[in-house]
Amino acid sequence: MDIFVKEHKVFDLINNNYHLLPVINRFGVNLGNKDKTLNEICKINDINIDFFLAIVNTYNNKDYFPEKELKSFSPLMIVKYLKKTHTYYTNYMLPKLEKLLHKLIESDSSDSNQLIVIEQFYFKYKSELLLHIKEEEEKVFPLVEKMVNNKTYDAGFNIHSYEKEHSDVDSKINDLKNLIIKYIEPTYDENICYEFLVTLFRFEKDINDHARIEDNILIPQLLEIERAQNE
Length: 231
Ligand SMILES: [Fe+2]
Ligand SMILES: [Fe+2]
Hints:
By secondary structure, this protein is an all-alpha fold. It folds into two domains: 10-70, no CATH class; 74-230, no CATH class. 72% of the residues lie in helices and 0% in strands. It contains eight helices and no strands. It has helices at residues 10-16, 21-25, 38-44, 49-60, 75-107, 114-150, 159-183, 190-230. Helix 6 packs antiparallel against helix 7 and helix 7 (159-183) packs antiparallel against helix 8. Bound molecules: fe (ii) ion (2 copies).
């Protein structure tokens, strides 16, 4: 299924793409919804259906661009959603990755320090990611709030450098995967390593989709504020 519409059932969505489980969870949508449709579940949880569809479809389909929906919800809704995603990364995904990495290092039977190098690389990536998140929370999001409230575009916000930053953070996680898949001697417990890798793949996907929401939904909305202001 390429695009979800409001008539689809919650089950269809999860069955088609289980990566969306944490995505809908951030909206407060849990399991146990019987045969309810997306429209019904949004009404029950007081969620703007256009906003919900824009987010799940952007996650689900790389080529999707929510042109029609963009005007029907506020950038503040996206900011609130993005903050929840950041919390999911810092409170759940990163600790989970670290626990697995620790287990992996403990399982290594060799004397080499190859996994220590991986660990150092991971912590470098983590600190860059946390810095990126911090800048969004402390600089970008407050600016968005200001723009939405004053209806003026802030010249201090450089959209192009903001977009570039995403690709920089993305490439680091890819390097980490490459190191493990290509170069590390498998003297560790392989099942733990596979689990670590699968978690890393999932995390990479989530974080890329998250950046796409920032680039394809939030930024166009800010450009729209700029356009309206210049009219
Ligand atoms: Fe973010
Ligand atoms: Fe970001």
